[in-house]
Predict the structure.
Amino acid sequence: MDQSTPAISIDRLTKRYGQTAAVSGLTLAIPQGSIFGLLGTNGAGKTTTFKCMLGLARPTEGRILFEGKPLEPVLFERLAYVPERCALYEWMTGAQLLEMQRRSFARYDEKRANELMDLFALDRKKKLGKYSKGQQTAMALVLAFSIHPDLLVLDEPAAGLDPVHQRHVLDLIIGESAGGATVVFSSHQIGQVERAAERVAIMHRGTLRLAGEVEQLKADVKVVEATFDDEAPSLNGLAGDPSVGQIQRSGRLLRVYVRGNGDEIARKITEHRPRSVRVLDQNLEDIFLTTVATSTPDVMER
Amino acid sequence: MASFNIDPHSGVPIYLQLIEQVKRSVALGVLVPGEQLPTVKQLALDLTINANTVGRVYRELERDGVIETSPGRGSFVRDNGGVGRATRAVEDVASAAIDGAVREAKSIGIDADNAVKLFRKALARWYPGLNDTNELEDQR
């Protein structure tokens, strides 16, 4: 198959529940073999997007294609989904659930499943109902990774896991992607997304606010911060500069969000004789928080 | 084998951090000409970062003439010229760091004379054998 065809393409997806639009007008392309991070506050529409992707919810509008085709039952043989809240058969033991997985999936790899059970220190003889919440999540991850899926959809896969197991999840995601699989995952732990994901999308209140390559987003956005002896000047000239995004003024402090290298804007601000000027890098968390902030108490222009 | 450390929370893109560290290791002789680098997948797993990021690092290091990759065999530090190129690249890193320090000093209102004094003080601290800076210290 053509490598340039996205593993998943979401085209103007809208999902309404009654009057509420959980997702509206979402368009995204997830390249094959990539790790894609979906970020958003609670209620941003991440889980709804996943449900629509997997046919668990019917889109109100728009469509989703897998490798250029609509979702077909045959895809489920090479797709794994770990939902935010896993519902495992509580009366089964870990070993029984693995046996069920073996019988259901031709791709099931017993050796791999056993390695994963040991990795997450899961008791095969214990009933799943007696597993802790974190262990249930880990069990769902064992099932997902045991079938060497081509496509993994993980909704908050590290929720409830301790930091050591969280790192194992990242390693598994990275390893699977290095082997050619496409991974889409959501997480509130931005540091994890920053490490593992090649591309991210930031959703807020059902709409897409920002999408792109993590490294590019970080390289693209700088903050020029200046302090003045008196109140920060309004610097109307800056607002017209195409590289300038948000401008925040608060007392003697001026913060200008700049696309690209901030040096030129820093130089322009220097002409207004500030006490100090510096150019700050932005990590993904800064970018996320700026993106989802709908209003700030500071004076905003543009 | 050199070991690398990346800070994912830094605003500096991970691939740039890693490129700098590989060049630094080559310039310092921690990685020697002909030495094999880990596979892309292995380094991705060691650092818990995206394999495509490591792939991009290797491609750029190859383009910069620091390493060479032969299909099926792996990536190696280049025999001819790799060290020189890495050394020059590390000089660029040092130059950028000094530039940043001077800019910082200027941004908090330190004039050129005082900036020079601070620079000489730093030289005296890190290059203890330097006579010139000792004299300067005496003058103060």
About this structure: Chain A has a mean pLDDT of 89. The longest helix of chain A spans residues 163-178.
